[in-house]
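Still learning. Any example?
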Amino acid sequence: MKLHPMIAALRKHKAGVVLIALQIALTLAIVCNAIFIIGQRIDRVNRPTGLDESNLFLVTQQWVGAPSADTPNGVAKLDAMQKEDLAALRNLPGVASVTPINSLPLLNSSWNGAVSTKPDRKFSDKGDNVRTTYYFTDEQVMSTLGLKLVAGRAFNAGDVQHQGFRDNPPRPIIMVTKALADKLFPQGDAVGKPIYVDGSSSPSTIVGVVARLQVPSTGTWVNGFTWNATLVPTRLNAGFARYAVRTKPGQLEAAMKAAAPTLYKVNPLRVLDDDSVKSFADIRAEAYRADVGMAILMGVICLVLLSVTAAGIVGLTSFWVGQRHRQIGVRRALGARKVDILHYFQLENLLIAGSGAVIGIVMAIGLNLWLMRLYQMDRLPVVYTLIGVVAVLVLGQCAVFVPARRASNVPPVTATRAA
């Protein structure tokens, strides 16, 4: 089949050809980037936090009329109050372990800083000064959060200190995640090595390395240190406290219901609202609600665009078939088979869709660069563009099949009479 007559025929319908090609190009550009965004959101939602997330819940509470954390006496009283709460929660039926902690992965409440292998280093993301998030906790953190120790040892009760919320005492020992340890000590010998927290001149010795622990924030600004976490064996003393609770299998709901009444029995002068006791499943769902919503929205946009483009191809091809009855009839009278007519319209659509795809590739890259500049989006991988090209070409062939088949079924006599 020669292309010259086909191109000549398309030149007679320039407006329709240009509109369909541009529609295909716009669809390709938007669909490629939308599918890429969907993929990124799904990856974010499904990435593991490092926790054993089942049978885990968090209690956040605030004391009313609590002592000030700015005086040593007030800090001591707050610590005693926190110990009473921990003892009460640990004695609940169905509770396996409890640890005080300032935050959890996905909670979007974080204490961040930087650690270095050298003292007195000001913050930067370069060299041996690495950004991290801090989890202040105690010796039950491993069992409560379900963390995996890959080197060294976990905290014991003798390691745990306490401090006022605004204090910044020396931190003799710490644990770090493997991601952070590998950045500070690429040779893999982090255990026993000193590091310096937030530009301190006092060393903190790494006693253990955990496999993985995600930072609390889910924002894009933490992409550079998502797995860089530092565990500090310290109870923070302030007017509020958080407790992570691990229950025995099947005891989560009962323990969550019993947590607030138990704490009120210890000290009724506190605030525990409806959101104060949350399972980690609820924390995860809340953290990624926007990502899931964005993925659904992008999916709907893709479906609408593809449907509109397909409808446009069907409509335009049907219109052209109606206008070309005489041409079809002549070709059939000269011996053209049904399959030749079918292939003619399919090839014609392939030319239009191919032209639109070429323009769409350029538009997809341009749109991605614009999103990268405005929203810190990652670069669009080539595979997404290739998938998009294949998708619009297949869509075009599917959309043109029905009107092309109808054209191929036109009897030669009827076509020539209609002309």
In short: The radius of gyration is 32 Å.
